[in-house]
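Handout, section B. The chain below has 376 residues.
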Amino acid sequence: TDLILIQDPRKQSDVPHRVSSDSFALELHADQILGDTASHCSYFKVCTFEPCVIPVASIMSAVSQLRSLGTHSGTFHVDEVLACSMLLYLNPSLNLTRTRDESVLAKQDIIVDVGGAYDPSSHRYDHHQRGFAEVFPGFNTKLSSFGLVYKHFGQEAVAKMTSHNRNTSLIKTLEPIVYRKFVEAIDAVDNGISQYPDEESLESRYQNNTGLSALVSTLNPLETKDADAAFKKAMALTWPFFEACVEKCAFMFIPAREKVQEAMANAIEGGKVVVFDEWCEWKEHLLEEDKATALYVIYPSNDSWRIQAIPVKLKSFTSRLPLPEQWRGLRETDLDRAMGIEHPGAVFVHASGFTGGHKMKEGAIEMARMSIAMKG
């Protein structure tokens, strides 16, 4: 077995270590290797920073050592489409076979959404069998084939997409966020779980941010003979949405939490107006932190400043305090005249009153103050 020799990481963490064989060349930084293997490598030796030796196979993805992937033929759903996409992302050399022939499926190194078994040790990831009740840690939604694959390989995929070590705090934080924002809805729809417990409920069981389940169903062809080509088209359509979700969660959503907390600590008008010096993905974080006090956020937008009424809950079109009715639908000079505020330069107020704009930060703040005063 090829081995990697790692020198003292305190001195050489910036030095790449390379091992080559006939089938691959692997280059990693010593600190990356240490972080990626410390929790699971069976041959991991660290003795007061003495040089340590790690088998290359322990660093390689479990998926990278597989050669064949199977799923069922015929009509497809988004869960197995994304499950196959993730596995092929981690190992593009996997040979994908779609079939209902059990003898062929039995020969595949890994199969998803078919086979009537969930057994990670043999890479069997079906969810249709009686008694199946697997969920993602910390959630209650029964998993689909995509959820199963994400549960076992999602951390690895997310780490690869963000160019981070899988054992860093970012990846551990990111993994459940991506599940909540993307994967859970795929699981729920495939398992026939309603987003709302009943018709009267205003609280949803899960977020559905894509609608991909319905989109993929439209790609199923009229003729079964065309299903394999359509399946590949569905993979090409859906996977970029998952990649975009991971990227935004990692580099926009997670960093925004600290910005929101800082802005809320400096909120004006008794905490009712939260001002950001730059736009960030504020809504979900703010609604978690503040249940009723804050009414408006203000942030820069292109060459002006935007005022936005805070919704009563995530995804709701109902605002805690919409901008005044007499301002709605007006623009520029007409809006300045209707508001009569100290700073001219109004841009617009949306017809529903949920947002508006002003050329100056002070003008947007004044709009918020006047709106609050008019309510009182």
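Note. DSSP finds twelve helices and 14 strands in the chain. Compare this with the example in section A.
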